[in-house]
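so im writing up the methods section and need the tRNA uridine(34) hydroxylase record in one place, dumping it here so i stop losing it
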Amino acid sequence: MEQNKDYQILLYYCYAKIDNPEEYREQHHLFCVENNIRGRIIISDEGLNGTVSGLKEDCEKYMAYIHADPRFAKTEFKIDAHEAHAFTKIHVRYKPEIVHSSLRHLDPNVRTGKHLEPEEFKKLKDQEDVVILDVRSNYEHELGRFKNALTLDIDNFRDFPEKVKELEHLKNKKVLTYCTGGIKCEKASAFLLEQGFQDVYQLHGGIIKYGMEAGGEDFEGKCYVFDNRIAVEVNKVNPTIVSRCHICDTPSDRMVNCANPTCNIHVPICEKCGWEMEGACSVECKDDPEKRPYDGTGYYQKKTNGYNPYKGLQRKPNKEQIQKLHGESNHSCI
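--- predicted struct ---
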């Protein structure tokens, strides 16, 4: 029987100037705690970026909270129904950038690539003078990517500027950039324009929105996401598998964290090899004394013992909040 999907997962970002990011970070964190929102949120001088989960009604409150602030009124949320929380904790952190890019001098509100809605991207992507550029990291595009997309050998988005030197021959082409939710493309496309590329576009809302609004056609494989789902289906039109098992090289889109916590590499491993290797990516990792017990999923829940969502806050929780925290501590996190 299909589980009821009473929860939602929200993916969003907004480039907007925040004059007091540390103070706002604390306010934002408290709102999440008091409304049972969990996930990862980055607050910066240049805006905010997050993936969160919660009951539908709590997510609606959270979106209303964001939109009520004039700085973030334009924020667009990608919303996925889910059967449970996709996170066990709430983390709201201050960082210099909302996505680590080494391109802090660029402001997407001033100049960035032309935004293409999913249907516009779909119509344009196969034209002869077009290059589809994946700006994500290796582990992401190895799991899934657009048909005929150009991928870059990068382990982190901050390596993107250096790799652009290899794309000089494409300056006279239409370059269509894409990523998971759109945030990396804001600065990637801006940087391409700065480097002399003339006709630069970006898939508005990224792969996730393309799957929701355009059926995901020609996106091959699965899309890597940054919550406990790990990978999601995108293509409802002509799906295929492009990733291969790290052990036996057969087609597999089953993402696994290596059972050896020291390694913890995240790679596709088919079910057969998963059981044979006990969740490890190599014989060395299988024989490691610290190897975690394998349950067939390859997902290892981080321990939440002693987790206190109010830790580090300047504003202390009131009596009701403390009682609520202690009351919930007797239940395991989803």
